[in-house]
Automatic annotation (TrEMBL):
Species lineage: Bacteria, Pseudomonadati, Pseudomonadota, Alphaproteobacteria, Hyphomicrobiales
Name of the protein: Aminopyrimidine aminohydrolase
InterPro entries referenced in this protein's UniProt entry, alphabetically: Haem_Oase-like_multi-hlx, Thiaminase-2/PQQC, Thiamine_Salvage_TenA
Thiaminase-2/PQQC domain residues: 28-220
Length: 226
């Protein structure tokens, strides 16, 4: 994982989860996405679930805004919630058109077990945990997507069919949003008790694992067993 400019908490979180990130970076979904060989079926499965996920992610970010201790935090997380719903779903909307996914199809497609787990975890953390722990849970989605996006960008050819996705998450605008979230998390971690800091780390690690689970679920296509 990259940690340039990161503060004490985020540097430590990267170090603790470096092996998990490397597993995510090299997993079949991302390797094939970078090569442009990922099947349309797998990518379609991914974008449908990601669109569902962004709704829950936006709700969790809105709750972070409500819990923020200062006006700057309220603005930061409110904007992030808006971007999760409006900006990123606009990207998905383009893919929906390209892959022939009707709104009715999206609405009728249930959350897969990995997506349901991830959304439920973020919302439970948003409602039940302190602000600092919630930031630990939210940060991996931002940071890992930026790192994966930059890594794939460096490997992908100009004719890659998933170029729009790659360019979004490797772009400067998303990078600035990620840097702001890292800074906010480090600021929240400053001065907290060792016990609360460890809870932040546990949340970060669990969300990192759920990032892998989400991509792997899209690749394998495993649904509910019953």
């Amino acid at each position: 994982m990259q940690g340039g400019g990161a503060g004490a908490f985020s540097r430590e979180a990267w170090a603790r989860n470096a092996a998990a990130y490397e597993t995510i970076r090299t997993m079949p979904f991302n390797a094939e996405l970078a090569a442009g060989t990922l099947s349309p079926e797998r990518f379609t499965r991914y974008i449908v679930q990601d669109a569902h996920y962004l709704i829950g992610f936006g709700r969790a970010l809105s709750l972070a805004a409500a819990k923020a201790p200062d006006p700057e935090g309220i603005v930061l997380f409110s904007r992030a919630a808006q971007e999760a719903i409006v900006v990123e779903r606009a990207l998905h909307g383009g893919f929906f058109r390209d892959y022939g996914i009707a709104p009715e199809t999206f609405a009728a497609t249930p959350l897969t077990p990995p997506c349901d787990h991830y959304v439920s975890y973020l919302l439970a953390t948003a409602y039940a945990e302190p602000f600092e722990v919630l930031l630990g849970a939210l940060l991996p989605c931002f940071w890992i997507y930026a790192e994966v996006g930059r890594d794939i960008f460096s490997r992908a050819g100009p004719g890659n069919p998933y170029r729009a996705w790659i360019d979004t998450y490797a772009g400067e605008e998303f990078g600035l949003a990620v840097a702001a979230m890292i800074a906010a998390t480090d600021a929240a971690a400053a001065g907290v008790s060792p016990a609360l800091r460890e809870r932040m780390h546990r949340a970060f690690t669990h969300a990192t694992r759920l990032e892998w689970l989400f991509w792997n679920g899209a690749y394998d296509g495993a649904g509910w067993p019953v």
